[in-house]
Design a protein that fits this description.
- This protein has one domain.
- 73% of the residues lie in helices and 0% in strands.
- It contains 13 helices and no strands.
- The protein is globular, with a radius of gyration of 21 Å.
- The two termini are 18 Å apart.
Length: 346
């Protein structure tokens, strides 16, 4: 499919999901005076909102630091300041309708600095993404073990059943991912010549080989990889705290602190869907899981309001990337043009 057409389809999907969520929210506020007074009229705690912004910004900076460490671990000279600059530019591009994502920009930028090491440059981005995604599953899976679904009798049984299934799936995928990581780190597994056969599988073969090559580059540093995983867990726990602070900033009841460690990772996994900035997918997942795990008395659209508040925070953070983009627009345009002709990192 033509890249521009694919981008148009992604935008249409995001708009459709957000349109449905906004329509649902408008209907509830229009028909429920109590919900309108609580979520619209009553004052909010803007200091807690600001605290949520600070926590989320901190998590983003730790994300950039994780990538910087992954680059340095492969012996490539790279400053933390450069990692932050490119990280923010990539963060911004993930929210645009550009056919080039932030990961591609970062991989191309590293390759520019290290001619002849394109594979290593792509490996840093691939491993960064893998650890970030797996840490989401770990946080969500562990937290979901402590959810008391029997206390949710006031919620639609179908919604509770779906939320339970999502939590169970998260736990299973986390276990499978952990076993997979362990096997790939064993001597002889990642280096086996049998993997070359995987490269001939249509479409997904090259992607799997790219991931494998990235693993091969880092597998001799197990303690370093554990540290990277610990950083990833810190990042996603921070996002859960940020979502909790947003919830506390709004008037009315809200789920427990622990529930946010289930809701937030699952919503962010959905936000990793190949949509512009994850728009629609993240909001829909967060609203659904938040409503499913909320105690009695929480407004039915409060999850959507929290999701939208979090989205505003991410857009404010993306403005920092806009400043970097304006300051270095010549280089960024060059990187974007080159990335359009390079295979995107897996």
């Amino acid at each position: 499919m033509n890249k521009h057409l694919l981008t148009a389809v992604k935008i249409a999907i995001s708009v459709a999901i957000l349109g449905f969520l906004f329509y649902k929210g408008y209907t509830v506020l229009h028909e429920n005076e109590k919900a309108y007074n609580q979520l619209v009229v009553q004052p909010k705690n803007w200091w807690l909102m600001f605290a949520a912004l600070v926590v989320c910004l901190g998590a983003v900076l730790v994300t950039f630091t994780r990538w910087w460490l992954l680059v340095r671990a492969l012996g490539m000279p790279f400053t933390w300041r450069e990692a932050v600059r490119l990280g923010f530019v990539g963060y911004l591009l993930n929210f645009t309708v550009s056919i080039v994502g932030g990961d591609a920009i970062k991989a191309v930028a590293i390759a520019h600095r290290q001619p002849g090491r394109k594979t290593a440059a792509a490996a840093t981005v691939i491993v960064d993404r893998i650890f970030g995604l797996y840490a989401l599953f770990v946080v969500g899976a562990v937290a979901s073990l402590f959810v008391d679904f029997s206390a949710l009798a006031h919620v639609d049984p179908l919604q509770v059943a779906m939320a339970r299934r999502v939590c169970q799936s998260t736990q299973i995928l986390t276990l499978i991912g952990g076993v997979g990581f362990a096997l790939l780190l064993l001597p002889g597994i990642a280096t086996s010549s049998l993997w070359e056969m995987v490269g001939h599988v249509p479409k997904i073969g090259p992607v799997l080989l790219s991931v494998l090559e990235a693993v091969r580059m880092y597998r001799r540093q197990p303690l370093f990889l554990l540290f990277i995983l610990a950083m990833s867990l810190l990042i996603h726990c921070s996002y859960a705290v940020g979502i909790y602070l947003i919830a506390k900033a709004l008037p009315g009841e809200d789920p427990s602190f622990a529930s946010n460690f289930v809701v937030t990772p699952i919503a962010m996994v959905a936000g990793a869907a190949p949509l512009p900035g994850g728009f629609g997918a993240m909001e829909g997942a967060l609203a659904f899981m938040y409503d499913a795990l909320s105690p009695a008395g929480v407004m039915v659209i409060q999850g959507l309001v929290i999701a939208l508040a979090y989205r505003v925070i991410t857009l404010l953070i993306a403005l920092i990337g806009a400043l970097y983009y304006v300051a270095d627009r010549g280089e960024v345009r060059e990187l974007v043009a080159e990335a359009q002709h390079e295979p995107a990192p897996a």
